């Protein structure tokens, strides 16, 4: 594998449910350090794509290569261990556990199962790393709060911080600002994007708010009816007639 090997390559990736193609012909190549927004109206196939890359859905056809390795069909734990991580539209947390415990559990789950007992247990190093990461996301103040008691926006921040445990190379965020009020969205993105980028992570995020896309993406992939409509620079994609007609005009999301 050379340094020029793309981080993520999908070829003709497809997922159908029954006879319905939720996402098809998805061929992209993403390099290291890119910041890519995935846009598209409701039901366009964005989450289906993220679910395939992260192993939550098995593709019906096509392939996924990560750092040159074929990872098609790996399960979520395997993709996580390979260095691909994600957050969810609705934060996936253990509500009874504290924020710090959620971070630690993520770290243990992402560790190699064949490691020694110590490698998969609660060590001081693991606690320190989890606390340091919470601090980087400005979340140290809620470290000992049960996750289930946190406000929605903070839960989403914690879910994203959990995706950053163990310095993954590729992070996919599924609608990081959904459910966050309009006037708090930018601040919330500021608080999560900077810590993610400080590790040179490659970032792909699904977003419906074009102000956020303009501010945080360098490249945009627009989905429409399960296919890629256009993949290019932010300026090019947001000025595209079809994107304006079918994607931006068709946004029906909070
Ligand atoms: N598990 C499933 N079973 C059947 N159909 C599904 C399933 N998951 C997704 N679909 C369908 O696949 C299509 C794409 O859905 P997907 O969730 O990927 O869209 P999306 O672009 O992420 O939309 P949104 O912005 O609303 O989250 C939709 O028509 C959806 O109804």
Automatic annotation (TrEMBL):
CDD domains: ABC_Mj1267_LivG_branched. The keyword Repressor does not apply. Residues 8-250 form the ABC transporter domain. GO terms for molecular function: ATP binding; ATP hydrolysis activity. It comes from the Bacteria. InterPro entries: AAA+_ATPase (IPR003593), ABC_AA/LPS_Transport (IPR051120), ABC_transporter-like_ATP-bd (IPR003439), P-loop_NTPase (IPR027417). One of its GO terms (cellular component) is plasma membrane. Keywords: ATP-binding, Nucleotide-binding, Transport. PANTHER family: CONSERVED COMPONENT OF ABC TRANSPORTER FOR NATURAL AMINO ACIDS, CONSERVED COMPONENT OF ABC TRANSPORTER FOR NATURAL AMINO ACIDS-RELATED. This is ABC transporter ATP-binding protein. The lineage of its organism: Bacteria, Pseudomonadati, Pseudomonadota, Alphaproteobacteria, Rhodobacterales.
